[in-house]
Write a structure and sequence with these properties.
Structural class: alpha+beta
Helix content: 10-25%
Distance between the termini: 34 Å
Order of helices and strands: HHEHEEEEEEHHEHEEEEEEEHEEEHHHH
Largest sheet: 8 strands, mixed
Shape: globular
Number of helices: 11
Radius of gyration: 22 Å
Number of strands: 18
Length: 540
């Protein structure tokens, strides 16, 4: 039996920086009339929507963005202006066909640049956005004969920020086991990828922010401005371009990042027509000696974050495939996660232990049960549960859009994907809609990721869970004054890069990508190295 170690959980995904922008005060009041979306010619991402938009308006914006990003992309011949470009000769219904990827189709967002294309492990990124995918890490990747390591979908993240590993049981709802010991390697691991649109890519490459020294200088200048915005920021500083609805060209769509979750599918699941599928690259072996592999994966979730003029802190929208917790039969899937830490604790601003937040998390005593067969210091399996359910207004919007999707293509896979919620304006009001916005397969861990708020402790992450749920985390600018609020969920988590000068982008703050994550549970020493790799993203 191993000695319990208390370690802080770190967090994931999305938020946006405003430099010198007035804070929009978006209304979260719902409307009774759900939105209509354009499935015939809605291939352009909407650039913005009016300030003070209702929750329904924001959710309609999110769905139209989802439709544009999941539109069929033009043929990828790697000529100028081909990646991230919709095929205007097709409609949205085409990408919903079950054989879409098998017949050579790609979605618009799938052809966005992967984070390692923007931040290669060695060297500089290509000056062109339209090059063939080339994933350069600081370690050598072995590519067996017959494997295509240049697939658009490159699933090089195997954990929730280096600490939580998520699995879908091969025989739901029970985790696999042998001889009384849990065997996660026999189950299906959920893998991730992060991408950036052309606007973000050109901004980073044009300013050479792929160079860590240049980016750090710009980030420091940005923090100085965020702290005291009475004077213009000193160059270089970081503020991603914003979407402008007064301009129609794609260069004015604003900065967009996506994060997607995938799992390998069985032949029956591939044939079911309930998933968007794609042939993807994933990695076996070890982190230091990764081996590229190919398989057919199903899309489980898609985060979309979009910086616009009226919402300069980004609009955060998250979509889920509906079979994460329950199968189409209604039976539970048994989705579970394994942590690299066996216990959690909560601290106040002075670093002293305090009671868990209300309502109590799954482990009010701080101890995470560990099944036999797990590596030392690991704990689990813990069954996943959804803390933030969809509001009635969101269900109404989803139903309306699904009806339109089915009307256009009765067998569309997209009818099985739903919007969970939207965040748009930072706030300290924990009662605001979707304050704890989280996706069940991207932020599965209930103790911290689904209920993230406050800040994270500095390295070495051994003192507690979140450093303080009551500590303000997000800069708000109003003219020449600056205040801070304590935002939760996706936006609050990605306030870490905002607060440190990187405009809410973990892609930018993370910098060069050293290694892909090999699948499976690593040895404790390797798990610590993975955690160390993400420490720099959560420092300060």
């Amino acid at each position: 039996m191993t000695r319990p170690i208390k370690i802080a959980a770190i967090l994931t995904l999305a938020a946006g920086l405003s430099v010198g922008m007035l804070i929009p005060k978006a209304s979260m009041n719902s409307q009774q009339t759900p939105c209509s979306v354009n499935l015939a010619t809605g291939y352009n991402v909407p650039h913005d929507l009016p300030a003070n938009a209702s929750l329904t308006d924001l959710e309609c914006f999110a769905w139209q963005s989802f439709i544009a990003l999941n539109w069929p992309a033009v043929s990828q011949n790697f000529q100028p202006n081909t990646r991230g470009v919709p095929d205007q000769t097709q409609n949205f219904g085409a990408s919903g066909n079950n054989n879409f990827a098998g017949s050579g189709g790609n979605l618009v967002w799938e052809t966005y640049k992967h984070k390692v294309e923007l931040f290669p492990g060695t060297g500089a990124p290509s000056q062109s956005y339209d090059t063939k995918p080339n994933y350069v890490y600081s370690v050598k990747v072995s590519v067996p004969s017959g494997v295509n390591a240049s697939q658009f979908n490159n699933l090089d993240e195997g954990t929730q920020i280096g600490q939580n590993y998520i699995f879908f049981p091969s025989n739901p709802p029970n985790p696999s086991s042998s001889g009384g010991k849990i065997t996660p390697k026999s189950d299906v691991q959920i893998l991730f990828e992060a991408r950036a649109n052309r606007v973000e890519y050109n901004y980073v490459v044009g300013n050479q922010y792929y160079n860590a020294t240049t980016a750090a200088t710009a980030a420091a200048n940005t923090v100085n401005y965020l702290t005291n915005p009475s004077n213009p920021p000193k160059a270089p500083f970081i503020s991603f371009p914003m979407g402008d609805m007064s301009q129609s060209g794609p260069s004015f769509e604003g900065t967009i990042e996506t994060k997607a979750a995938w799992r390998m599918l069985t032949p029956d699941e591939i044939a079911s027509g309930r998933y968007h599928t794609a042939t993807a690259v994933y990695y076996t072996g070890t982190d230091n000696q990764p081996v590229a592999q190919n398989a057919t994966f199903g899309l489980l979730a898609l985060h979309i974050i979009h910086k616009t003029k009226n919402y300069p802190y980004f609009i955060f929208a998250t979509f889920e495939q509906e079979d994460a917790l329950k199968l189409d039969t209604g039976n539970p899937t048994g989705l579970y996660f394994v942590t690299t830490y066996p216990s959690v604790s909560y601290l106040n601003n002075s670093g002293q232990p305090v009671a868990p937040p209300a309502p109590p998390p799954m482990f009010p005593n701080g101890i995470l049960p560990a099944a036999p067969g797990l590596p030392p210091t690991f704990a689990g399996p813990t069954m996943a549960s959804q803390y933030t359910p969809a509001l009635p207004v969101t269900k109404q919007v989803n139903d309306a859009v699904h009806a339109q999707i089915v009307s256009q293509n009765p067998t569309s896979v997209w009818q099985y994907y739903k919007l969970l919620g939207v965040q748009s304006v930072p706030t300290s009001d924990t009662q605001s809609p979707y304050f704890y916005l989280a996706n069940i397969v991207v932020e599965t861990s209930l103790p911290g990721l689904q209920r993230f708020q406050g800040r994270i402790p500095p390295p070495p992450f051994h003192k507690g869970f979140p450093d303080s749920r009551s500590m303000n985390n997000t800069f708000l600018l109003n003219g020449t004054t600056s205040t801070m609020v304590n935002m939760g969920g996706c936006m609050g988590c990605h306030a870490v890069p905002q607060r440190t000068g990187y405009d809410f982008s973990f892609i930018l703050k993370g910098g060069p990508v050293g290694t892909p994550d090999a699948t499976g549970l690593p040895a404790p020493a390797a798990a610590k190295l993975r955690t160390a790799r993400v420490v720099r993203q959560f420092a300060k």
